[in-house]
Amino acid sequence: MQRYFLNKVYEKQETIEVSGDVYHHMIRVMRMTEEDQVYLAFLNQVIVAKIQKVGPETVELIQMGTEEQQKELPVRVTIASGYPKGDKLDLIFQKATELGAFGLEAFPAAASVVKWDHKKRQKKQERLQKIALEAAEQSHRSYCPTVRLYEQQQELIATFSQYTHVLVAYEESAKQNEKGKFVQTLTKLKQEDSLLLLFGPEGGFSPKEIASFEAAGAQCCGLGPRILRAETAPFYALSAISYQTELMASLNV
């Protein structure tokens, strides 16, 4: 069943009216008609709705039920990537959405080759938000992550205090066979905790950057003995978090 995200709170009502891009996709692309059913993901609830009336620019639906299955990670994980080369950020944000990331962010690191002015950065952010939306629909998420691209690294560092935990994936930690910080943090995570994970671009982070991160309260960690690519490390981390907080928890281990 097709899923659509509506950026508003659901208040129980007799009919739900949608228009714009959602209407276009329902009626023009999917060619839905009256009696067809869809998922509507509001900010506070996901419902099953049936098309009742199709107009020239709007479609009216009625609620048939609610989605009960939990689709979101029990902890809010934000992925922050140093700007990588090419279109790698498209892949990172798409797959991170499928794996349950709550927030998707990127920033200029010392090793980043990409340089975007305000106009290009805004255009890229809009494109990435669309990619995240499509990935959230495809993976049947209840929530679509918000995308944010920073102009300066310091803007990201200023947000550290907003999170319960902040970890930096650092290849020097991996080379030194550091294994404890990531595992310790995962085992301490509680429901509704927030975790910010920083990943470097090609070339990783410089010692100066690491010092700035640690001064702001972040901890460095290794992600196993192998050095992972900029686009691989976030997927490894999110998969490990899902295993610890969802699969293991379901077994009451």
* Second-tier CATH architecture of the largest domain: 3-Layer(aba) Sandwich
Assess the beta-strand content as a share of residues: 15-25%
What strand line-up does the widest sheet have?
8-7-6-10-9-11
Evaluate the radius of gyration: 20 Å
User: Which geometry do the CA atoms define?
Assistant: globular
Tally of individual helices: 8
CATH class of the largest domain, named Alpha Beta
What is the helix/strand order? EEHEEEEHEHEHEHHEHEH
The CATH homologous superfamily of the largest domain corresponds to: SPOUT methyltransferase, trefoil knot domain
Q: Do you know the CATH topology of the largest domain?
A: Alpha/beta knot
Class inferred from helices and paired strands: alpha/beta
- Summed over residues and divided by their number, the pLDDT gives a mean of 92
The tally of beta strands, per DSSP, is 11
Low-confidence stretches: none
Helix content: 25-40%
Biggest sheet layout = 6 strands, parallel
Keywords: Cytoplasm, Methyltransferase, rRNA processing, S-adenosyl-L-methionine, Transferase
Pfam families: Methyltrans_RNA, PUA_4
Function: Specifically methylates the N3 position of the uracil ring of uridine 1498 (m3U1498) in 16S rRNA. Acts on the fully assembled 30S ribosomal subunit.
InterPro entries: Alpha/beta_knot_MTases, PUA-like_sf, RsmE, RsmE_MTase_dom, RsmE_PUA-like, tRNA_m1G_MTases_N
